[in-house]
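Sample 3 of the quickstart, ligand zinc ion:
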Amino acid sequence: MIINVNKISEKGYALNDSTELDNSHLIEEGSFFLDGVDYQVLFKRQDQRIQAQGNIQTAISLVCVRCLEQFELKIHSRFDIILFPKELVEQRSTALDEDDLEYIFYENDQIDLEKILVEQVNLFIPFKPVCRSECKGICPSCGANLNRGACPCDQAKNEIKFLFEKVKR
Ligand SMILES: [Zn+2]
Ligand SMILES: [Zn+2]
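Result:
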């Protein structure tokens, strides 16, 4: 998915397509694509500066950090990014702070669209993914998924509490 910069005129260059991305691109451990990636991108060019505005839609499977079960995350992401040629970024980088170096760049007049799409998908993944905000997680002693109801430990705990209360009286 390489786009030659010369294809992009002043009026722009629009793409509307879908692709399959490899699971190895996903940074989140245990995650994988459940669907192909649909995308619409409009590239606009001003000399060497290229603006890419677009949308992507896909679905991925993630592991919930609380209950450790797989769940589906639908991705609908909009992006609006600016790309510069790498040569230009390297020239300027000496004068800039490290923090300012978050450029996206292209090399040899070629834009790697796959790289942009992969990055957008990864940006969409929450830092600590949970299957739903009320997820109860797993029991620390027996590992049961508490979303499916109380585990035996819960009952045992209640019994102990009950006995304890009895002793106190
Ligand atoms: Zn969960
Ligand atoms: Zn338990």
